[in-house]
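Question (not urgent): is this output format expected?
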Amino acid sequence: MSTRTAPQRTSAVLAALQHPTSTGTSARQTFLDRIALRLAVALLLWSTRPGPDREAVHARRAQRLAREAREAEWERRRALLAPRR
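Got this back:
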C-alpha cells in the first residue's frame, strides 16, 4: 500500500483517538480493591487447575501401599532381631 495515496484521518477521528484528559484527581484503587482483585485472580487460577487423573491416583496409592508394606516388613524384622530381656 502506498502511503502517498492512503486516506488521511480527519480531525474528528484524531480527537476520538486521544486519551481523555484527567480532571485533576486520579482514580486509584483502594486497598480493598487490590485485595479483592488478588483474591479473584487466585481463585480463578485455583479453580482452573487440572485435576488428578485416574492413573496418577492409582500410582500414588500403589506407592503408598508399597511403602507401608516395606515399613511393616522392617518393623517385623526389627522385632525379631531385637534382643529379649
